[in-house]
Design a protein that fits this description.
Elements (H helix, E strand, L loop, with lengths): L4 H7 L2 H8 L5 E7 L4 H16 L2 E7 L4 H4 L16 H20 L14 H11 L4 H14 L10 H10 L7 H5 L4 H15 L7 E6 L4 E6 L4 H10 L22
Parallel strand pairs: 1-2
Antiparallel strand pairs: 1-3, 3-4
């Protein structure tokens, strides 16, 4: 598997992630991600900063994006190769990954463009399996780092065996893995519920944020981590800040503290 000092340093944050996820808050922020989305990969750690600065619970949920609906390809064949509908669609797809690489570098995250299209449905069932043991983000980050670090050449997102290994690597008890993640099993039903709920709250793409606006008590759905500052400003105004110096301001070019 893809292992470098940088990858190991990121996975060393696992205890911190679990501490932040275990936090009970005055309100909950639902965050929908896709394990094949580079921009969801980039959103994990900046999103967790909300739990560090505010009395807010973070609830990560999976959503399986459609390449055709995103306009990245006109069809998905058995060979999983990208087939752009036009030159403009091809340019859009290339920029999608090029932009992600620039932001990944700021977080010291490895990111290489994928060599083919990916199917994340099974991985999302496994994500929900890990979530039952409160290990969904360590699992997701391990998969992201292995996958995006090699352009998905060293990790098969559709492989039950490799996904089971990913679970074991971060401490998930895999004794009920097959039963939960099998086609038509509990994992499939839970994933569909997650996706339906996201769509009911205005889902456009991943990451998708859903929260109750404290000011007017309405549910808001926002697409993209560029909205983290807006979300933080609403929590700040509502008095959810943990500390007097907890700020609403938050850079889209966030970088982790060094040292």
């Amino acid at each position: 598997m893809h292992s470098t000092p940088a990858v190991n340093a990121i996975m060393a944050e696992q205890t911190d992630w679990q501490t932040l996820l275990a936090q009970s808050g005055e309100t909950t922020l639902d965050v929908y991600i896709d394990l094949k989305s580079p921009h969801a990969y980039l959103a994990i750690r900046p999103t967790l900063e909300i739990a560090r600065d505010f009395n807010v619970s973070i609830n990560f949920q999976p959503y399986t994006l459609s390449y055709t609906k995103l306009g990245l390809t006109r069809s998905v064949g058995t060979d999983m190769q990208r087939r752009p509908a036009s030159a403009a669609a091809d340019r859009k797809a290339r920029m999608y990954y090029a932009t992600a690489r620039e932001y990944a570098a700021l977080q010291n995250l490895p990111l290489r463009s994928p060599h083919r299209l990916l199917d994340s449905d099974l991985a999302h069932r496994v994500f929900l399996f890990a979530k039952r043991q409160n290990l969904e983000i360590p699992f997701a980050m391990w998969v992201y780092l292995q996958g995006w670090g090699s352009g998905w050449r060293a990790f098969e997102l559709e492989s039950p065996d490799q996904l089971r290994t990913a679970c074991s690597e971060v401490g998930v008890d895999v004794s009920a893995f097959d039963t939960y993640t099998q086609d038509g099993g509990e994992g499939s039903a839970s994933l569909q519920t997650s996706m339906t709920t996201a769509e009911e709250n205005g889902f456009v793409g991943a990451p998708h944020y859903v929260f109750r606006d404290p000011k007017n008590d309405t549910v808001v759905g926002l697409f993209g981590r560029e909205h983290l500052a807006l979300i933080r400003s609403k929590y700040k105004a509502a008095g959810f800040a943990k500390h007097a110096d907890s700020k609403a301001e938050f850079s889209h070019a966030w970088q982790p503290l060094q040292g």
